[in-house]
Structure formats: C-alpha cells, structure tokens
Amino acid sequence: MRIAVAGSHGLIGSALVDALTRSGHDVVRLVRTPVTGADQVRWDPETFGVPPGALNGADAVIGLGGVGLGTRRWSGWVKQRLRDSRITPTSVLAEAVADAGVPVFVSASATGFYGDTGEDAATEDSPPGDGFLADLAVDWEAATLAAAGARIVALRTAPVLAPSGGLLGRLRPLYRLGAGGSIGDGRQFFSWISLHDEVAAIEFLLEQRHIAGPVNLASPQAVRYGDFSALLAQQVHRPDWFRVPAALAHAVGGELVDELILTSSRVEPKVLTDHGFVFAHPTLPQALEYARA
Q1: Nearest by Cα to 199 from 267, 284, 281
Q2: Distance between CA 36 and CA 42 in Å, rounded?
Q3: In the chain, where the domains are located
Q4: Average pLDDT, whole number, for the chain?
Q5: CB 275 within 8 Å of CB 211
Q6: Are 116 and 263 in contact (CB under 8 A)?
C-alpha cells in the first residue's frame, strides 16, 4: 500500500512509519519542515495545505498530529492551541483525501471523548462525555467527515506506554526520585495502551476494510490509578507512599489534572476485540515490562 502519514515524527507516528516500512508499504511523510528526503512532502494546514498531486495514488492517509495534552497547564491560550493543532490539520487533510479520491482516512482522536466514565466501561457506542477533552474529541472527529467517499476511522487512543517518551517518560523520573504516587483517592480508572499494540492496531485497521467509524485503542484491562502507580513504583524499585490529595492536585495542575488524571476513564476496545485483534500486552504488568526503559 502507498500510505501518507502526517505527524510522522511524534511518538506514535515514528513507530508507525517504521512498522509500515518494515511491512513493505510505501510510506510518504507529510512534514511541515523543509523536505530532507525523497519520502517526504511538505504541507502546511494554515497556509497552502496539501500540495496538488501529493496524495495521488495513495491507498490511505493517516493523521496523527497535535500539540501534547499534558505538556503545560491549560490556560485559555493553551486550550486554543490544542484545538487548532488538531481540528484545522484534520479538516485540511480530510478535504485533500476527498479531492484525491483516497479510499481510507485514519485520524487520531482520544478516549477523552467519553469524559468521566465512573465505574462503567465505555464502548464505541457510548455517548460523548462532558468537559474540554470531550468537546475537543467531538469536534476533532467531526472534522474528518470532510473526507467524503473515504472509509473514515477515528482512533480514540488512550495514554500510550512506551519505552521512551510519552507518559512514562514524564512519570519515571519522579518515581525514581521517590516523588511518585497516587493522585486523588486512586480509585479512578485509568485506561492505557502499549505503543506496540497502538501501532499493531492501526496496521490491523488499515487491513480491515469493513471497519469504519470510532475505534477505541485501549487495553482490554483498565486499572485503578492507584494500582497503576503502585506497579510503576515497583518497577523502578521505589516505595509507593506519596499521595497527592485531589484538591492539591487541582490547585497545582488545574483543569489538566482534573481531566487527565482525576477523571475516571474506563474504556473497552470492543470493535478491536470483536474483530479478532489480539493484544500483545493486555495487562499492565506486561505493558510496563515491554516499556521498561
């Protein structure tokens, strides 16, 4: 297959391009920086968009871009950047997909679509929740609809556990210093997926031509945040004694902490499991061992 990938230098994009290339696919990177190789095409969603002819002959386009959700406190300006870095590029890509007649458009989204799920497991049939992330995910997915005529897949991805970078890249240094621990009462559910399974699931969805719409990319075994914290501390051989009350966490991190950590996110990957996808790391101990730095 000839596959164009936007966001190819991020955590997921880099691993995905490597996997697709190893599988023998012809991968074109859509980049915003000056082109440095024959496999790259420059685009800019805010100005000239996707160059004419750039997607000719493509069998699929994958959009994975977006400013990181957990890099800084969510001021009004930061929240606007989070929206602009996702919705505008997705709209531009979707329109280019329609214009070029590309048959498949796979676009990033997030499990934040469901908001606070409490004790209930959210499947792809569950309605959107409340909050900034839920509203963002709804609008993000709506932007894909401009890809008229294509099979559209929205990747509702949980936090990704990887050997370097991502969530664990931020948390491990704290835990190694003995400053890691549960936040809030630790009873909130935490959904996650290993980077290996994230990439494998995207490859699986490219091949499954009858799957369209939202797909939850999350392990089938969500855990309590307190259990996640304890297992991470155990892996780096540090005690899991530190506790941050919810009120203090909110005072420090504001809305970001409320929605990314204190909110209960129990997400079930029903579409993937119903169609026979097999997770390499279905349990958290397996994923942490895979992602051991």
Answers
A1: 281
A2: 10
A3: 2-290
A4: 95
A5: yes
A6: yes
| Coarse DSSP helix, strand, coil percentages of the chain, rounded to the nearest 5 percent | 40, 20, 40
- Condensed to tens digits (0 to 9), the pLDDT of residues 120-129 reads 999 999 999 9
- Give domain 2-290's CATH architecture: 3-Layer(aba) Sandwich (3.40)
Q: What is the largest CA-CA distance in the chain?
A: 57
Contact 135, 280 (CB under 8 A): no
Show the tokens assigned to 257.
């902490």
Convert the pLDDT of each residue in 196-220 to its tens digit. Answer: 999 999 999 999 999 999 999 999 9
Q: Give the number of other Cβ atoms within 10 Å of residue 1's Cβ.
A: 14
Cα 182 from Cα 110, distance rounded (Å) = 23
Cα–chain center distance at 252: 25
- The alpha carbon dihedral of 255, 257, 263, 266 has a sign of positive
- Which band of pLDDT confidence, cut at 50, 70 and 90, is reported for residue 293? low
Please provide residue 122's backbone torsions phi and psi, each rounded to the nearest 5 degrees: -90, 130
pLDDT of residue 179: 85
DSSP state letter for 267: B
Report d(CA 44, CA 178) in Å as an integer.
Answer: 43
Q: How far apart are the first and last CA of the chain?
A: 33
